[in-house]
Design a protein that fits this description.
This protein is of the alpha+beta class and about 190 residues long. It has one domain. About 35% of the residues lie in helices and about 10% in strands. Strand 3 and strand 4 form a beta hairpin. The model has no long low-confidence stretch (mean pLDDT about 90).
């Protein structure tokens, strides 16, 4: 991260508070897994589910259980947070460690790396209003929080980091709003 980006971030939010929005540092061992290059819309997975079942969902865990039930007949499941982060190769962003200029929406940046597949063929949704669901967190977007909140550069880019996460009460309180823009990057079950 450049000194300019670090200074802008620290002016916006103390670094220790900002770091709480990212996955904690950890070491994990993962068995081999096959993750989809393109995410699926969560709403499509829920087609045919009775509205009362969807309306009764009160937690991310309950939503994940329902999505896993819908994926299982295809021999698929939700990714874990560790699997999603590992799939994107452990760099700050899928395109590397460069924080682009501008903001990641519409024509407000000349950068297009967030719209292209990464070196492993994984494609981001390319819009921070969109999010991806893992078993324990919402990732790869912030539902537009940074853009709608007019957060300064480089904050709107941070939601594209595979380590960036939305979890806890924030997700629980906005679960149905996230569901409209939520996607799932399924993992093939062995």
């Amino acid at each position: 991260m450049t000194a300019e980006a670090r200074a802008a971030l620290e002016a916006f939010l103390p670094m220790d508070e900002l770091l709480t929005r990212f996955s904690p540092a950890r070491r994990v061992s993962l068995p081999a897994f096959d993750i989809a290059g393109e995410p699926l819309a969560a709403e499509e997975l829920l087609d045919g589910v009775d509205d009362s079942v969807v309306d009764a969902i009160e937690s991310l865990a309950a939503l994940c259980d329902l999505l896993d039930d819908r994926l299982a007949p295809r021999s698929l499941r939700l990714p874990t947070e560790d699997e999603l982060e590992a799939a994107f190769a452990g760099t700050l962003f899928p395109w590397g460690d460069h924080i682009p200029d501008g903001i990641p929406h519409g024509s407000q940046t000349a950068f297009r790396g967030h719209l292209e597949p990464d070196s492993r063929g994984l494609r981001l949704l390319g819009d921070p209003y969109q999010v991806e669901i893992t078993r324990t967190a919402v990732k790869l977007g912030d539902g537009g929080e940074a853009l709608c909140g007019s957060y300064p550069w480089p904050v709107p880019w941070l939601s594209f980091s595979p380590s960036f996460r939305l979890a806890g009460d924030f997700v629980e309180n906005l679960l149905f709003e996230f569901l409209e823009t939520a996607h799932v990057r399924p993992v093939r079950m062995d």
